[in-house]
Amino acid sequence: MRAMQLQQPGPIAEGDRLEAVAGADPQPGPGEVRLAVAACAVCRTDLQIVEGDLPARVLPVVPGHQAVGRVVAVGPGVGEEALGQRVGVAWTGGACGRCRWCADGRENLCPELAYTGWSRDGGYATAMTARADFVHPLPDGFDDLDAAPLLCGGAIGYRSLRVAGVDPAGAPGLRLGLYGFGASATIAIQLAVHAGAEVYVATRSQPERRAAEELGAQWAGGYDEAPPVPLDAAITFAPAGEVVLSALRAVDRGGVVAINAIHLDRIPAFDYDLLWLERQLRSVANVTREDVRGFLALAAAIPIRTRTEVVDLADANGALRRLRAGQVAGAAVLSMG
Question: Which domains are present in the chain?
Answer without folding.
Answer: 2-151+287-335 (3.90.180.10), 154-283 (3.40.50.720)
